[in-house]
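Format notes (please read before filing issues)

Several people have asked whether sequences and structure tokens are stored in separate files. They are not. Every record keeps both together, in the order shown below: the sequence lines, then the token lines. Line labels are part of the format and must not be stripped during preprocessing.
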Amino acid sequence: MPCGTVPGGTVPCGTVPPPAVIYLGFKTSDEIEFDDDGDEEREDFVYKNEDIVAYNVATGEFSIFFDGSECGLEEANLDDFEFLGSGMIFTLRSEFDIPGLGEVDDSDVISYTPSADLNASCGTFGIYVRGEDVGLTKGEEDIDALGFAEDGSLIVSTIGTAKVPTTPGQGNDDDDDDGDNDELEVSDTSLMKLNAIPVDESSVVTWTLYFDGEDVELTENSEDIRSVSTGGNQISTVYLTLSGDFDVESLNEDEGDKNDIEACVPASLGEITECFFFKLLDGEKIGAENQLDGLSLEFGPARAAITAVGTSTEASSMREADVEAAANVANYAEATASEDSGVTLDDFFDIATRIYLSMVEQ
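Then the structure lines:
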């Protein structure tokens, strides 16, 4: 498998190829400024914190994928998100009254289904998981990162330490003889997996530890997980953004800051978490210097925008350009394979290759 690159980052040999599109959310509204290259002045790209921004890896172009203000989220702060079929799920930074749905909590996971009518301004919202129904009842248990595990289960991180129900013998309540009150305590530098979405009040809710941040030296306040994506089940690679400067140490060491996407190719996940780390994207090098708090990756053709922004002529031409560029991603990766990957230690490549081969064999 060739080694690929993205602007500001690398995909080492033995891991997955670079994504076609990186979808980003930002903590605050801002703009991405472009330097005048002398040939053609490039207009600065403006976004808001209720938007989802699409970054096309092959072309280096930004576009608005989801325009939150079109759907009544103008005063909201959209946190992390993940795609589900033709729609998506997401969580918000604080309580908010969503048009057509009502008040939601920042521990809730909200679904969004686009309208089949291309002329409609917005689709419909619903509750995917209500936080209080799955044991997320305290302020520190508000969700700030969400995604899907390789088996399709929901994975989340919370803004503080969460205490959630788990199966007997798996939690931290070892003094409980009958196991009825077993709890799992998970820090904001870790990820936990919801084993099944409750269907009614009789449903048994349990969580398990999915990614233990302490095992990879994520222990500081600045190392809170802000968003997560598993990249469409691409060999279970876990992609993270964190709240500030971070240092990770496991099978190798790496470091970064609040506008980077850090990738973990796992040797193991759960109670024992071991990773080969690499930086997928350095946001500063592409002009995205704001705090990243939303992330999803697309390894196939780019998705069409899912709100009214997609009905405009300008947005339609953007989508066509994205699809055309995405179709050539394989050629792009091959063309860059002969260039310096930016990784200078041979043992990094050896470790990544061994991890990849062992996971394929499994």
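For reference, the curators noted about this record: The mean pLDDT is 81. The CA atoms of residues 196 and 345 lie 42 Å apart.
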